[in-house]
Amino acid sequence: MRHSPLVIRLRLLLIGFHLMSGALQVALLYPLGGNTGRQRLKRAWSQQLLVLLGIRIEAAEGGLAGIENGLLVCNHISFIDIFVLNALLPSGFIAKSDVARWPLIGWLSRHNDTVFIERGSRKAAHDTQRNMLAAFGAGRRLVVFPEGTTTAGDRLLPFHAALFQSAIDAAVPVHAICLSYHGADGQRSAAPAYIDDIGLLACMTTVLEARGLTARVTLAARFDPPLADRRHLAHRAHQTVAAALSHAERCATSL
What we know:
alpha/beta; Glycerol-3-phosphate (1)-acyltransferase; seven-stranded mixed sheet
């Protein structure tokens, strides 16, 4: 049974208030809490957002526990992926520069250790590399979605190898993460997919209408330094995530 339109609108309103509360936390509490305090706030805020969206997390074999630093590479389905990963392991993210211009979410991203990619010039690529190395040097975790775009979760696009180079240069581990969304019946759900021309509000509405969604997160592989060249590393990471996705699909089909 689906929520009524009125319930959907009320929950969207609550999500809007939660986004504003996140902005207040960033503005007022981040400067006071230090890095540990900021990570704690980020995790709690992301967990609360997922509750409002009606999404629970199912982390296989401990999920991302024990990952202290390095580069996390994950398949990409939705903007919600960011909050799923932050609810488990607060991290900085590599994002396209246009995210910085999104209302409110862009502001939050700019103040949450996001490294923005400016495309189209060698200088922009160099700046991204420098910012990533600085983050790794400070012991921070960074997440990248190496497909470069989102899918409905039904396939895995090739991984772009360029952003693996920073992990190689910084000699930090690379963690390959598999993420999938499933409905109350256990089958894969495309409700959270942020694809084609769907807008942010329409995507959240679809998620709320779906009800009973679960985000399943699996650590598919860990690659420790010294790392292979970036193309080989990207290929191996792609293989492990593809295998984990295939396993999740088989498990869902057998239900």
